[in-house]
Predict the 3D structure of the following.
Amino acid sequence: QLQFAESGGGSVQPGASLRLSCEASGSTLDYYAIGWFRRAPGTELQGVSCINWNGERITYADSVKGRFIVSRDNPKKTVYLQMNNLKSEDTGAYYCAVVTSKCRVDTQTDFRWGQGTQVTVSS
């Protein structure tokens, strides 16, 4: 079964940068579009960014455009999220998942969510 492990989070001050990693196991990552999501305390899961299987189609939430960069390395089975100029509103647990072409969680694909990685932005 395809499953994910997120890492790279931390506690930083506003304006700092972090690079998150989403490492897949149990299956090749080559054919899947992958999305990054985050959940702040007391809120629903929010889509952050999506990248298609070969990295040629990328989308970002308006709130992170110009600050976040998503990329992938299929041979390493890893998707990255470079987060720059972090703001307090970026605080939350970040997860990756298989997504559809519309950047929605793909409920038809059998995969296991990771534990997420916590990002806290505070002065």
Remarks:
- The CA atoms of residues 55 and 71 lie 7 Å apart.
- The longest strand covers residues 18-25.
